[in-house]
Specification:
The chain is mainly α. It is built from nine helices and no strands.
Amino acid sequence: MDPDEILVEKALKGDDDSFRSIVEKYQGLVYAICFNITGHRQEAENLAQETFIQVYRSLSRYEKKGLKSWIGKIATNKAIDWKRKSRLENEGKVVYLEDIGEISTESNSIHEELIKKENAKKLLELCNNLPEIYSSVLIKYYIQSKSYNEISKEDGISVKTVESRLYRAKNAIRKQWKEV
C-alpha cells in the first residue's frame, strides 16, 4: 500500500501525527500553488492553511487516486476562488496609477499588461475545467516550472506520458479558448 494511503487511513482513525505528516510533506507544494496563482505571500500562507483545513474535513471523501494531485487540486481551487472574490470586491473601486505598481513602458502599455493579466485568469479557469490528469501536469509544468523528468518521477508515469498529457491539455485549452 502507498505510504500516503497509510497516512490517510491512520488520519481517518484519529491519528493526529499522521495528518501532521501529510501537512509537512505537502506544505511546500500547497504554498507554491497558492503563491503562483495569487502572487501574494500572506494570502498564499492563509490559503495554504485553508487548504489543509479543507483536506482534513474532506479526508473521508478522498478516493485514493493520488493524494498529491488531490491536495494540489484543492489548493488550486482555493487560490482561484480567492482571485475571483478579490476581483469582484475590487470592481467599481477607484484605482490610482501609483497603486498599480511598476509597469514596463519599454514595449508594453498599461492596456497590454491588463489584457495579459485577464488572459492569465481566463487560462487558469480553463485549466480548472480540465480532467485532473491534464490540469495537474499543466500546473506542474507551467506554474511550478518542473521538467518532464520531475513530473514523470512524481506521478510515476513515463516522460512520453507527460508529453502526451501536456499536448492533449494544450489542445483542450485551445478548443475551450475559441469557445469563450
